Amino acid sequence: MAERWRGRVALVTGASAGIGYCMAKALVQRGMKVVACARNIAPIQELAKELSDQSGSLTAIKCDVSKEEEVAAMFQAIRKDPNLGRMDVCINNAGLAHNAPLLSGEASQWKNMFEVNVLGLLMCSKEAFQLMRDSGVDDGHIILVNSMSGIRTVKSKGSHCYVATKFAVTAIREGIRNELREMKSKIRISQVCPGYVETEFVQRHHNEELAKAVYSSMKCLQPEDIRDAILYILDAPPHVEVNDVHMRATEQDF
Ligand SMILES: NC(=O)c1ccc[n+]([C@@H]2O[C@H](COP(=O)([O-])OP(=O)(O)OC[C@H]3O[C@@H](n4cnc5c(N)ncnc54)[C@H](OP(=O)(O)O)[C@@H]3O)[C@@H](O)[C@H]2O)c1
């Protein structure tokens, strides 16, 4: 990873499991000061102990990104911490799915998906940008962990609302880019759109049986594959803004 990120501050949302956990670990190992949030921070605290001999550091903050006051409090804590006090990289990874069809699903489940996948990501991106600006960072990077569901629909009624949230993320990626260019900022924004990744995602939000069926049907992407794509994005020279990375398991047929 580029030497210029060493000692700088990164936020990873949704870092208690899966892609976020893998990403937080990789950035600490590469010398960054990583703030990692989730609702359950016990796994992050354990990881911090495991990584205590690394040059980077890991700070766990309990934050439900769908709650405006919790997002504000997390950024306030980062601003006030003399060891942090700035923002260089923001990886918006927290996300979830519910099985909630558009014509028969529960409104509470639609709401929860939009609150976490869209509004949470938007609030963290805004706060991250403002902290970058306030701390004089003009080469920062905002990264959105989107999905192949953010660029194409699938014939799976339980997923349609999740797909809608992820299409919104694609629109946000381009919208934030437009706003950054309008203000002549050199801060970059990128998104990664993976297909199936073997994490806790399917099990958490559908069930164990479906998770086993999905993950045994093919060699799925691994969290490390997404990590490597994000490291590639972060390593691109300052004049290169990687906009979208689309990646699927070779065997995934949709
Ligand atoms: N796995 C896939 O097949 C796949 C494919 C494409 C895209 N993605 C996207 O990749 C991202 C990460 O998913 P994953 O596969 O790593 O899933 P995962 O293993 O289920 O991990 C999800 C992470 O998000 C956190 N999270 C959920 N709701 C949150 C909230 N309200 N506030 C803060 N953190 C929250 C969870 O932590 P807590 O529960 O502790 O809060 C957990 O750390 C998501 O945006 C997902 O949409 C996944």
From TrEMBL:
Top-level taxon of the source organism: Eukaryota
Gene3D superfamilies, per the entry: NAD(P)-binding Rossmann-like Domain (3.40.50.720)
Stored Pfam families: adh_short (PF00106)
GO MF: oxidoreductase activity, acting on the CH-OH group of donors, NAD or NADP as acceptor
InterPro entries membership: NAD(P)-bd_dom_sf, Sc_DH/Rdtase_CS, SDR_fam
Alphabetically ordered keywords of this record: Oxidoreductase
Family, per entry: Belongs to the short-chain dehydrogenases/reductases (SDR) family.
Name under which the protein is recorded: Dehydrogenase/reductase SDR family member 11
Organism: Littorina saxatilis
Source lineage: Eukaryota, Metazoa, Spiralia, Lophotrochozoa, Mollusca
